[in-house]
Design goal:
The chain is mainly α. It has helices spanning 2-13, 18-31, 38-55, 60-74, 77-90, 95-107, 111-124, 129-141, 145-158, 163-175, 179-192. α1 (2-13) runs antiparallel to α2 (18-31) and α3 (38-55) packs antiparallel against α4 (60-74). The chain is globular and about 55 Å long. The chain starts with a helix and ends in a 6-residue tail after the last helix.
């Protein structure tokens, strides 16, 4: 909520500062389910992303926020795909754009393309535990268990406090009948984020 207040302050100072709107759009996307109901966060995210794009159509993060809003709330996969493609075209070095596009491709059954986008995410930010976790998750979804475990363990070294990694490393161990290691990862996730229902 502090970030939201600062972004709104930036907009009040300069109503034509497009990056503040794209940042605000992403802020609303990240508040969904945790702090705001989707009925509030989705329209706010979409309005902010569209305002950012009205100011600067080449804002990759605004296209990414709009893609996520369309995919997650409007369930228009074709329209979301166009926004993801525009985001990675405009922001080839934006790790988040490749990461979320990888998730989109995986959800839509395009596992090879998803893996390629996940790897592009780590190339854009090699020290990102989240990006490396995404590579592991795509490997898990593709049933490449050993690769998934290797990638997820690497991601854990980069960011041991990333609860999402614990969820999926636990699932990878579970898929390979390594129950004790799976349980340890699930417990790690709970220790990192006690309030998290996942």
């Amino acid at each position: 909520l502090v970030a939201q207040a600062l972004l709104e302050k930036a907009i009040a100072i300069d109503p034509n500062y497009g990056r503040a709107y794209s940042g605000l759009a992403f802020n609303y996307i990240n508040q969904d389910d945790w702090y705001l109901p989707p009925s509030e966060s989705a329209p706010a995210a979409k309005a902010a992303a569209e305002k950012a794009l009205a100011i600067d159509e080449s804002d990759a993060l605004a296209h990414l926020a709009l893609a996520l809003e369309i995919e997650w709330y409007e369930w228009d996969q074709a329209a979301a795909g166009k926004q993801f493609e525009r985001a990675v075209e405009l922001g080839p070095d934006e790790s988040d754009a490749h990461q979320y596009y990888a998730w989109y491709l995986a959800v839509n059954g395009q596992m090879e393309r998803a893996a390629a986008e996940a790897h592009r995410s780590t190339q854009a930010n090699p020290l990102s535990g989240q990006a490396t976790t995404t590579v592991g998750i795509i490997s898990l979804f593709s049933r490449h268990w050993d690769t998934a475990i290797e990638q997820l363990r690497s991601a854990k070294l980069l960011d041991p406090a990333y609860w999402f990694n614990a969820c999926f490393l636990g699932r990878a161990y579970e898929a390979t009948a390594r129950s004790a290691e799976a349980l340890a990862e699930f417990q790690r996730g709970l220790e990192v984020d006690k309030e998290n229902p996942e």
